[in-house]
Specification:
- The chain has 41 helices and 4 strands.
- The protein is mainly alpha-helical.
- β1 and β2 form a beta hairpin.
- The longest helix has 25 residues, at 39-63.
Amino acid sequence: MGARIESFTIEYTPFFSAEISIKIKPKLKNIPSSTSIDTASVVKDLHQIASLAKSFSDQRLKLGDDAHLADLLDQQGVNLWNASGLFRQDSDSRLIVAALRLAGFRLMEAGLESEPSIQALLHMLQVASKAGSALSEVGNSEAAASVLTCAAKFEEALRNHSDPDRAHEHSKARVTTLYFSSRMEAAWREKNEGLAMFMADKITGLDPGRNRRELLATKLLDIGKSILRACHQGGKLVVEGNRAPDALRWMQKAFQVIEPLECSPNSELAELKRAVLRSLARGYFLASSHDPENLTRAEVALEEIISTIDPSVDHTSSEYQQLRWMKLAVVKRRKAGDIELLQALESIIDNMTFSDSDLSDILMELRSLSPQYDVVTSTIKRCLWRALDTSASISCIEKLLISLLFHCSKGDDHTKAMKNLEESFQEVVKSDIELSKAAASACLTLIWQYGDRHYHASRWLEAADWFICGTNAVFSGLGPSCTSKCLRKAALCYIQQKEYARAASAVKRCPVNGATTRYVVFLIAVHQGLYSIRLHALLEMVEAADFDRKMLLLACRLAHDSDMKSLLLSVLMALSDTLNFRNDVENLAEAMVLIRCIIRLTLKLLGQPGANIPPLVKTLLNYFKNAKTLVEAVACENVALVIRDLSWLWRTAYNCAIDGCSNWDNHGEEVSSAFDISRQLLELYIAKTLTEVEPSTYVYIANASFAATSGRVILVRERLSGTDAQPEILRNLSAEIKSCTGRIASLLDKVPPADRSHLQSFLHFLRVFHVESASHLGEWQTILETIEEATRDEHQSLVTYEAIGDVLWENKNCPINGMMQLLYAALEAILHACLAHSQLSLDKFSRWLRSICSILLAKGSGADRSKAIQYFDQANAVLEEYGDLAENGNPLYPADERLWLLSTAYNTGVECLHASLVDEARRWFECATVFCRFVPNGKARAEKISETYTDLLARYTRG
């Protein structure tokens, strides 16, 4: 049964294949277009043919040859193979072509004789190599491997076939090269680089012929370039950057294959050679990080390329320029000297077309060479000269000028930079080139920027040179005003250098004789001490059409700084003559602006090192007061004109006062006055403004009021230290404290809730200040009222009471009775605050408790002792809760205070017992016994106290 099936398969397989072929032909009728062909169906049928043909080939080996079947299969295979050559090369057609070649090969293989001739082997090796290559291209690696495996057998058979006359040697080399090439490409696509390189090595030993060499070189070059692209993407080395030597091996093989061929300079082969050499040069360049000698090899490759180019072609071609750029890159990488680098750059510039892209490329390259100042300068000048010679576009020349300006500003040799700029500007002028206003303005802006940079660095002469550079005729299109501005700037630099003659010479060249120019003349005259010229320039400045009163303010500042009182008087008179704000609404606003300018000017002077603070502060406060007077006199309908100025004034006055706290040494009264004037201006602003102010604004009134009062309190303390009290000063201070307290208290409901605690703290401090001033005046009743007022306050502060207690304790002039009463009131308030608000510091609590109890017990009355024992009970309660707390081994409630409580309670009990106050004595002894729990050896002490109390009680009872 098995034998019959096998016989059936052998007999009918070829006919089945022929039938399928007939079914395929209608599907391929639209060759060469593949758009109307069912690609998937055709490929499937063709692969089925190939599979059947392979099966037939495998079975034929067992059954022998059939010439008729072999011819039939071979013919079918040739037909399918020939059909593959009719398709266009697109993505779909490549799949069909690969399938056709696979089917054709398998059919021809099935029709091959068992002992083929050398011609048949040559043919089959060629067909197998091409079919395997086609399948590899479309990604069918499995089929490609199968076909190329068959090709290997054919290659081995061909190699072992006898050819004594060597008649087929060239054909064998050609076909073998094709086979190795196909194996190499397939292995490369499969990322089997070892096998691919092995096949490439085998190829190089063959001579496949001229055309095959070109094709082979192209393939080798493509593989090398793909490696090179992978290791250097986007101009940056990637992880595979160390594979540049691998790319070189492939490109070297490509050059080895193509080098023996002779060709004319303009032939396709010459183009291929140049492409290989270019890739080699690039590969050597990238591989130079591994071997610096590769830079020399890259230069050799570039020279080889140049030798293959026809010198009669256009030297500005992109190919030539690309070679020059490559040469520049090699020279840079080799860190050659400036001469070689400049030569490489000049060769590029001399053959540039000065298009936008060319210019951008050269300027971008120069940016990377900026540390090599002379090279970049010479290159930009060479570009500019060439652009002028070749009549390049105006925009190109403008870009080069801006680049030259930017580069020259970075040089260390200022004189050389100025010379280069002058030469370049003159060349542009000689060429009758007129810069656009935008470009000229850009250049002039850069010149002013660089001049200002030198000016602020106190390099006056260098700055003057830059400004003089801006007067060149190349910028004449901007008009005489720009020239005048440059000359004025230069004159100011000469003034700083104290070269007044050069400054005068520069300003005389100004084509525009306006107010600004006259001011510079005035400035020079001031420094030269020429009074008549100075006054004449000032008058001309005021009468000029472009006069601005700010110039007089500047003159005022100059006069003030130079301590020229007569000149200052003249300037101020000129200002006052130009303003009459009472009769002119416009002048009202100008007067306010003038006041603001004077205040700003004074503030700047105050901020300078070594400023003469007293007169400046006086001037500042006077102008704030003048501004306040001015606003108060403004009619209601004109308030809108000054309301913004008033807002600025109070804020500025407030900030000045804050700044004065740290910078106005020994000017405490002036600082307080500044806070006062800021508060008055703010109150005036609130009264004048038509809109509702923010609640937080009232906080500034409280801050300023408290700061002014606090400053005066501190000032009075300094005056009273070491001297007798001055009642008038103290009464004025007390009145101010009362006024400030009332003012801040009235603001509590106006400020935001979050700021009320801030104002409450002010009130606490003011109470302390009031007690302090009243204690110096001896107004003890006032002090007592202040303490009672503080105890009624819902927002009590322990610190306030402590400060009041300190003030009273330190005052040695307080009468004894008054002292006791006041101290008692203060201490009682402290204890109540401690207990009511949980602001408990055990150490302070114990000290204040001891003080108040000492006062009560010193009075000696029963009521006072009764109140004292209440405080002792409170101390007991505190010890019950906090007595065990300790820090670093020391109890928080001091041990000496505990012993004082114990001893005082015991002694008071004894005194009461002596006075026959048995019940009261018992309470004191009980209290002392309780305190024994909180002292060392408490139990023994308690027993002793109990025994003593019993003995004393018995003794007094018997008596």
